[in-house]
Amino acid sequence: MPFQWGVATAAYQIEGAVDEDGRGPSTWDVFAHTPGRVRDGHTGDVACDHYHRWAEDVGLLGALGVDAYRFSVAWPRVQPSGTGAANPAGLDFYDRLVDGLLGKDIAPVVTLYHWDLPQPLEDAGGWMNRDTAARFADYAALVADRLGDRVDAWITLNEPVVVMAYGYALGMYAPGRTLMMDALPTAHHQLLGHGLATGVLRERGAARIGLANHYSPALPADASSAGAAEAFDVFMNRLFTDPVLTGSYPDVPGLDDVVRADDLAVIAAPLDFLGVNYYQPTWLTSPGPGSPLPFDMVDAPGHDVTGTGWPIVPDQLTALLVGLRARYGAALPPLVVTENGAAFPDEPDASGVVPDTDRIAFLASHIAAVQDAMDAGADVRGYFVWSLLDNFEWATGYHARFGLVHVDYATQRRTPKRSFTWYRDLISRSRA
User: Fold this and answer.
1) Catalytic positions (predicted)?
2) What are the pLDDT digits (tens) for 62-90?
């Protein structure tokens, strides 16, 4: 496939319309409406109102000139209870969106699960319950049967490590459970769901199938912290890649009781690409007394940071892409950078312009890092900016602006930032 330039979004972060046309509640609806969970009590009830303004947003994508648009389907919009027949009105929305994209010659890249689990499934145990993997495959079949004839690529799961770590272990994200190391079954059940859904998509003739993993290179903070960095790498990176590409888990305690015969064969179904979401590396040190984890995370030394305080380290994206090739060799499918971006406190100036020069510098340095990885032999087939729009940014609410397009949440006015024009021009030059 030719190299694809794109942008990405996620359903709960932009759609709004949480109680329209038969959509059921998700774990994020419940979490966001629980006092103290999200900064300033923000919710995704309206978000960017993309459910009603999708045509305007497709127009922005056309003006941007991207090859592909990665968006997620809201499971509770398609299957409100997480089981049973599809909600026709929910599928109708995505049907219109896909046709709108194709009308602009933009390839639809569909993520089936970007963290919005139907709340009835969470009530039955969520990803701690093996049955959720089977329900995910059923849902995948419903979406593929409606959209599969027009979708360019499918991504089964987005960042399963975040669901495990932030959602079930630490309680920072929905569903807000604090199981710590007892959350490990959620890793296996998500990956099993990925494998089962991959089989369903293959049966329906899916064009291309991938998985989008969050990767954070593990860097020891000092000479004595190599073991802590290795432990972090296993839990946060390899746990969600080794079984998919090699058919075996790294040495992680706590999975023996949940892995059944043939599970790993299902999980290791061949992929057409591996999605890489990269924002920052993590520095690690040995855990302090009483720590429930085999590592402690520490602040980055001597790096500029984004508006959210994340260190800006583009050369670690190069190292990550090249390192995946070195670790997995022939088992590694082509790579796609499915998310990369940065939040800065962007607001229009007196003339109405959003001069986000920090974001432009961030994107330029990371795109150069991707090119460096390709020059070193990494097979990278695409790059997607996070995100098209400023949006609901999970537990930080509407405070972190990642978009190429500024959104005034009071009026829903969209204003392309200077980074929008810069990215448009870069894409245009790449085709010259």
Assistant:
1) 159 (proton donor), 339 (nucleophile)
2) 999 999 999 999 999 999 999 999 999 99
Task: List phi, psi (to 5°) of 258.
Answer: -110, -20
SS3 (DSSP) at 196? helix
Q: Do 286 and 224 contact (CB within 8 A), yes or no?
A: yes
- 248 cis-preceded (ω within 30 degrees of 0): no
Give catalytic status of residue 159 as yes or no: yes
Please state which CATH number belongs to domain 4-431. Answer: 3.20.20.80
One of 159, 203, 230, 347 is an active-site residue; which one?
159
| Options 15, 122, 230, 339, the catalytic residue | 339
- Say whether 347 counts as a known binding-site residue: no
- Is 5 annotated in a binding site? The answer is no
Domain boundaries of the chain, sorted by first residue: 4-431
pLDDT band at residue 253, thresholds of 50, 70 and 90?
confident
Residue 405 pairs in a beta bridge with 389, 416
Could you tell me which residues come within 8 angstroms of residue 203 by beta carbon, excluding any fewer than 6 positions away? none
Residue 114 annotated as binding site: yes
Helix axes 131-147, 88-103, angle to 10 degrees: 50
The percentage of residues in the chain with a pLDDT greater than 90, rounded to a whole number, is 96
Asked whether the predicted pLDDT for residue 292 surpasses 80, the reply is yes
Task: Tell me if 386 is assigned to a ligand binding site.
Answer: yes
Active site residue 20: no
